[in-house]
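Expect chain and fold; thus:
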Amino acid sequence: MKEAVPLLVKHLPQYEESKTKETYVLSFGVEYLFSGGHNNAPRESIANEGTYNYIKFKNFIDKTVGPDELYNLLNNNNLTDQGKMDKLDIWNQVYLEELNKKVSSLLPKEGELENQTMDKNNKESNVSESTNPNR
């Protein structure tokens, strides 16, 4: 499968936060040393999060728009960079709406949580009444 952009793009903001290339490299070395290695470093976890988000977005585009459409868009010489960004913004908006629908479907409906709590309390009350030796 084609990859449209490098997967390690999340390290770029970390690089930009450093004053020099040397401080960037040195700070990673120190972080790796104190965290027990590359995969345990906090900034590595942040960078990986960007990779995972990209893969989820790419998979969504492959399923909803078509296989390799992200690659095709980014490599389309007939579109300006602004045209590509506009299309990406539309796709991203649809992607975020789908994520919000999934999250919303997992949340309890309004009043549902209160009803479940009241039902549980009523059941517990009935159990304690039926097991009360003084009754």
Remarks:
- The two ends are 72 Å apart (CA to CA).
- The mean pLDDT is 79.
